[in-house]
Amino acid sequence: xxxxxxxxxxxxxxxxxxxDLVVGVSNDAVNFLNSAIGSKAISFRTIMIxxxxxxxxxxxxxxxxxxxxxKGIFNPGEFVFEEIMFIFMAVMITDILLLDFFNTxxxxxxxxxxxxxELLGASVAISLIKIADTQGGFSDLAxxxxxxxxxxxxxxxxxxxxxxxxxxxxxxxxxxTLISFKFQNRSKWVESVFGGLAITAIVYFxxxxxxxxxxxxxxxxxxxxxxxxxxxxxxxxxxxxxxxxIVANLLKWNIYRIVIGFGTFALAMAFAGNDLVNFIxxxxxxxxxxxxxxxxxxxxxxxxxxxxxxxVQTPTMLLLLSGAVMVITLWFSSKAKGVVKTSVDxxxxxxxxxxxxxxxxxxxxxxxxxxxxxxxxxxxxxxxQSKIDKQFVLPQTYVxxxxxxxxxxxxxxxASVNLMVASVLISIAxxxxxxxxxxYVTFMVAMGTSLAxxxxxxxxxxxxxxxxxxxxxxxxxxALSAFVAAALIAYLLFVGKFVSLVLMLIxxxxxxxxxxxxxxxxxxxxxxxxxxxxxxxxSIQGVIEETAANIANVVKRSNRIYxxxxxxxxxxxxxxxxxxxxxxxxxxxxxxxxxxxxxYFIKNLDEAHxxxxxxxxxxxxxxxDMSQSLEYIGKVSYNHVNNNHKKLKYNQIKELKEIxxxxxxxxxxxxxxxxxxxxxxxxxxxxxxxxxxxxxxxKINQQVSRTRTEESSPKNTTLYFSLxxxxxxxxxxxxxxxxxxxxxxxxxxxxxxxEKK
Length: 757
Hints:
Elements: H1 2-39, H2 44-60, H3 67-72, H4 81-105, H5 111-133, H6 141-144, H7 147-179, H8 188-210, H9 220-227, H10 229-251, H11 255-296, H12 316-332, H13 334-347, H14 360-379, H15 382-391, H16 412-431, H17 438-452, H18 461-527, H19 540-571, H20 574-596, H21 598-603, H22 611-642, H23 650-675, H24 682-686, H25 689-709, H26 714-744
Helix pairs in contact: 1-2, 1-4, 1-11, 1-12, 1-13, 1-16, 1-17, 2-11, 2-12, 4-5, 4-11, 4-18, 5-18, 7-16, 7-17, 8-10, 8-11, 8-16, 9-10, 11-16, 14-18, 16-17, 19-20, 19-22, 19-23, 20-22, 22-26, 23-25, 23-26, 25-26
């Protein structure tokens, strides 16, 4: 059994390595896809092919980067084989679960930070066990842990966040001031000089960061770049500037597109070359440790692991296989697309659909920034300010909001600056042997450039800042949770040995499977028919036809929400009411989203159909009233049960169910009328209006007399009256909506719609 457990661990680590590659690429794809996808500079297929080739090159050149997993965080000579295997196992289990958690949320996080803190957490846990056995002190931890290296990595990563944001903002501000948003109209020399600078930066980045450990970089070229960097850069700049000028004039190629394609390749290559260690470094170190131990013939509890400190080349076949897994994941991972979407949305030039809700900190930062900007504006002479402002004026090409997601999130200049600045910063840090996270640098450069480009205007600043704070907060959470979780798992593995290992692997597989199923379910829900669509028609009849599906949808969901509230109250079922409350909130948010589009809807109308705007505004008002009533009913029902108040009495539940049954008939008839576009049926529904009012009024009177004679619970009375009055408001809103459609519909008129350009 002694040797079998280690064979099992090596096999398990191999499987975990493949899984980690999949979840790692899903997370880190944002680093190199963000700028190309956001700017829509080249087709999605071309972007993916370029990135795939970059990953393949990077994976082959990755061999020398594996040292951090072997000896960067802990001193291997202080541990025996058994302990090292538990450290590696804990690291891989934690890494997969942590990265998958962030991918499921659609948040970019750093694979570098996670692997560093997992190695730190697991090795600290095992070290403390060893210290406790030898009755040593806490200060002995420095013997086992490479504290200087760990501190350097942490400091380097934190510093890179601030520097990347600041330099990204500064370079983008200068670039935009010189080039403006009308970059197509600038002279070819401007484009060529920009191209020369950007391509030089990216070439230097490829040579310094990407291929420094590859065989083809050895020799004269590497020596020249290392000893004469300025001469190398100057020569490159002249060469690429002239090349860009010739290509732009003779072949009429867009230099910005070339920069974006080239930059995407470079960052993809650097990602594979340097971050591959985060996914397979630990399993490879474990495999080599196992081979050393097996050859030694010494017991696993006695075999010292100082051999790990020696430099070992990773087999090329393993690197090729890893590259293949990364490329396949890039093409097929829906989670990768979700993480990229977060980054692109936060950098979007227009308002778009904001993913994050503002918080206290984001509001205060925006207020402080506005104040600071106003104070700086007083110092800058008005003439200079006016010239700068002109360069930041967006071209006036109006696009309906429903089409904004199809438009580029930002232009080619910003995408090029993103790639150029990220390349330069990562190159400098690498040449100075400073550790940093490629995720943090690329993300923060993108945020800095979007700020400098005035993408975070008054309409969107609080949402964008909140998003950036969420992502940065997630990074700190990564570090802390990676450390704690790896330490805990390492301890449990050390104590429980084989039993703990099997249980941990089963638990990890179950969690990954559950996350995969829930992610797929969420994706399907987003695509489902149950979401509301924006109207784009330009006439009243067009709006009636187009919004009929929305009304049928709202009525169907209103029926479900109202019935579920009554059912949950009758059963006193808290979980059921909680889910129902979420559904009512979701409906209210969707209707709020449609209301927010009123501005864009009115913008699209021509003079002949301005009446459609009044109709649309009134319909939105009635839908909002309905959703507010349902949201209130859902909330008070949930709160009543959640606060453990008395159940409603049998008579009260019976009366509420009578109202529910009457409303269900109305809801069903209304839904059918709108689904069939048979608006004449609405007249029949409207005839039941007085009957419904009378029924609710009767229930109110019955409760009043009950309260005077037999009712003993103030909370029950309050809830019951609230439900009845809100039901009355719901009926009123719905009948007003139906009256609007009934009065305005005219089947003899062919609906007019906006011409699609």
